[in-house]
Design brief:
Layout lengths: L1 H25 L13 E3 L5 E4 L7 E2 L9 H11 L11 H14 L9 H10 L6 H17 L2 H11 L6 E2 L1 H9 L8 H9 L13 H17 L5 H7 L16 H9 L4 E3 L4 H15 L7 E8 L5 E5 L27 H10 L8 E4 L18 E4 H6 L3 H11 L1 H10 L24 H12 L3 E2 L14 E2 L3 H12 L14 E6 L5 E7 L3 E8 L11 H13 L24 H4 E2 L9 E4 L5 E2 L6 E6 L5 E5 L2 E7 L3 E4 L5 E8 L5 E8 L1
Parallel strand pairs: 1-5, 3-4, 8-15, 17-23
Antiparallel strand pairs: 1-2, 6-7, 6-14, 8-9, 10-11, 12-13, 13-14, 16-18, 18-21, 19-20, 19-22, 22-23
Helix pairs in contact: 2-8, 4-5, 4-6, 8-9, 9-10, 13-15, 13-18
Length: 669
């Protein structure tokens, strides 16, 4: 009976102690388990473009267990906590062993801290030197094991383990010390990441590479002895040098990354392609090297079929203060110069006002109080609309703008997604010559519509923002005609690949902005070069300064040929066009045709050169007939010399393009 009472008392004491222990563990305060991680900006494939430190300047990157090489976990658990998956926060076997070693040797031989206890220490930023601190960690470790799964505890370790300096967590450590994501690690790399948290400051690879290498090799040898890796692999990897410094964090697309992070914390997935972005940033920096440091540049490359921006460079150097490199010039309103002209011609084609082979007059003209002039001050007379666009003449495009109406041009811009800034309020004829503020991003979207059969596809730079909303600003035939004309321009002398490109250059008033925008069958690119403060850049022309960079930018993606003409496209010569489309604008006088010289009945002296003839009225071309014989056709000038040298009476007749005729009879002596 006494033994039974003793046993019952013992069981009661054990149960009481267990209940008290449970209550003590359950009442343990749990520190915050969620910690701020570095905001990340990633490309279309999930590759890191740019990351930002958290408060205190720490690099602490979000990482999931499946983003880490399994070899790391095998090494970590084998080295730090062999019974991690079997204990409840405290390894009693390891604790007993450590206590016996202390009693026997008078000093610590091996530790007994579990991974869960290490997580408890990281969560509380506590110390292990005092028994009170150790006891608090054991209590918290037991509490964590009751509330979290083993995977959640490992995740906390991956995010909080110290790796030296301002590097915290496995992923930040892999990127900074190894220059790679932790998804694929060699045994030596995994061993280094296991060893560093034990003494993060004294083993920092940038300050103590020998200590880091020694600690890493110790882990490798232990892993080989425990059968985690082959001994041959351990010995081979021990020969690898330890990292000697920090790898820089990716700092790509700084302007766009800043825009993304400004919208909120966390991860931001963009449409950019890391390889294309890297290549384009390198290209722009190299292209602008040696030029004035006050000069900036912006380049956008997009897929005009999907509207996705693949690369965006807001300045050659984000850190350049003289050139205001921190300003994203892809978003800055500037004068587009002549780069709006293709839209004007496209609208004229689409509305039946002109055809690429329509003749248009390039001569001095006055539009109310507005008297535009060509850039070079010269005039070409009558020429095809196609050629007027290729030569970027001002008078013809203003004639077309007047016929379209500036308000309709403004409406087309707005339908294309452009938010034009008008300094004077209502749009005028100067709109088509660059008298408006637009951004390079907006011009890219406009040209994407020209490249995509006249349909606008809103440009997107966030993967989540993709939209199917479309507007039609031109018909497919008109858009193709514009592209076909611009593809006929000779590329810059320095341009190599990518192949045939439809492109247009522009220079704003005062040489403040140099533009080049172009496309192939899939990609569209915009280049802007100038000073962010808007001051002139003497001698800067779009064709000389921006066009070579445009072709080099397009060569960063695989060239796609321009499309064939849509079935409805009118591929006709001028003579085959309907009469209203043969000429545009101020036409030659259409009053009654009359031969004003020589007068009827006149007697003239013969001359070896012939007889001078002057016409009034009618419409060219003219046909000259003498005594019912056709002498000349296709005469376009109202003054010419008729090849008449024979003496006697001659009847001269002139027939114009509309069939009007005028006759005179003269005598030659």
């Amino acid at each position: 009976m006494k033994r039974l009472l003793t046993l019952a008392l013992a069981l009661w004491l054990v149960a009481f102690a267990r209940d008290r222990l449970d209550a003590w563990v359950d009442s343990a305060p749990i520190p915050p388990l969620i910690h701020a991680t570095s905001p990340e900006v990633r490309d279309r494939n999930g590759d890191l473009l740019r990351a930002y430190t958290v408060d205190g300047g720490l690099w602490r990157m979000e990482v999931a267990l499946d983003q880490v090489d399994p070899l790391f976990f095998e090494m970590l658990i084998a080295y730090e906590d062999k019974r991690f998956y079997h204990h409840h926060g405290i390894d009693l076997i390891a604790t007993s062993r450590a206590a016996w070693q202390v009693l026997r040797n008078g000093r610590v031989i091996s530790g007994a801290s579990t991974l869960t206890m290490q997580v408890a220490r990281l969560l509380t930023d506590g110390t292990t030197g005092q028994w009170q601190g150790k006891l608090a960690q054991m209590r918290l470790a037991l509490a964590l094991e009751r509330r979290l799964t083993k995977k959640q505890i490992l995740s906390l370790y991956l995010g909080l383990a110290p790796y030296g300096g301002n590097v915290e967590g496995l992923r930040a450590a892999a990127l900074i010390w190894l220059g790679k994501e932790p998804a694929r690690l060699t045994p030596a790399e995994a061993a280094l990441l296991v060893a560093l948290p034990q003494a993060p400051e004294s083993r920092r690879p940038d300050r103590h590479p020998d200590a880091a290498r020694t600690a890493r090799n110790r882990v490798l040898l232990r892993m080989a002895r425990d059968g985690v890796i082959p001994m041959a692999a351990a010995r081979s990897d021990q020969l690898d040098p330890a990292p000697l410094g920090r790898h820089p964090m990716p700092q790509l697309a700084p302007h766009m990354a800043d825009r993304a992070v400004a919208s909120g914390p966390g991860r931001h997935d963009l449409t950019l392609d890391r390889a294309v972005q890297t290549s384009l940033e390198t290209l722009v920096t190299r292209y602008m090297t040696g030029r004035s440091d006050r000069l900036s540049a912006a380049v956008i490359l997009a897929d005009h079929q999907t509207g996705e921006i693949l690369a965006s460079v807001g300045s050659p150097d984000y850190t350049n203060k003289a050139g205001q490199g921190f300003v994203d010039m892809t978003q800055a309103q500037r004068s587009p110069g002549s780069t709006l002209k293709p839209l004007v011609y496209g609208l004229a084609f689409d509305r039946g006002l002109a055809h690429p082979e329509t003749l248009i007059l390039d001569a001095p003209a006055q539009f109310g109080n507005y008297a535009p002039q060509n850039f070079d001050g010269q005039y070409r007379g009558e020429l095809p609309v196609r050629r007027a666009l290729q030569l970027s003449l001002n008078i013809p495009v203003v004639r077309l703008t007047e016929a379209l109406g500036p308000a309709h041009l403004m409406t087309a811009l707005q339908k294309a997604g452009v938010k034009p800034g008008l300094p004077g309020g209502a749009p005028g004829l100067a709109l088509s010559l660059g008298g408006v503020g637009v951004t390079p991003a907006e011009m890219t979207q406009l040209y994407a519509a020209l490249a995509n059969g006249g349909q606008t596809t809103p440009l997107t730079w966030r993967k989540a923002d993709k939209t199917n909303a479309k507007n039609t600003i031109l018909g497919p035939a008109a858009a193709w005609q514009v592209g076909h004309i611009l593809a006929g321009l000779a590329p810059p002398a320095s341009a190599g690949p990518p192949g045939k490109v439809a492109y247009k250059t522009g220079t704003s008033y005062g040489h403040r902005d140099a533009w080049a925008i172009g496309w192939d069958g899939r990609y569209v690119a915009t280049v802007w070069i100038g000073r962010p403060d808007g001051t002139p850049v003497p001698g800067a022309f779009g064709g000389d300064l921006a066009a070579p960079l445009l072709f080099q930018a397009l060569s960063r993606v695989k060239h796609t040929p321009l499309p064939a003409p849509p079935p409805e496209t009118l591929l006709l010569s001028n003579a085959q066009l309907p009469e209203p489309l043969q000429r545009f604008g101020p036409r030659e006088p259409t009053q009654t045709l009359k031969i004003s010289f020589p007068p009827d009945g006149a007697t003239l002296q013969t001359s070896p050169a012939g007889v001078p003839v002057k016409l009034r009225g009618g419409r060219a071309p003219y046909t000259l007939i003498a005594n019912d014989t056709v002498l000349q056709t296709g005469l376009r000038r109202p003054e010419f010399t008729a090849p008449l040298t024979a003496k006697g009476f001659t009847t001269l007749a002139i027939i114009d393009a509309k069939g009007q005729a005028s006759r005179v009879t003269i005598e030659l002596n």
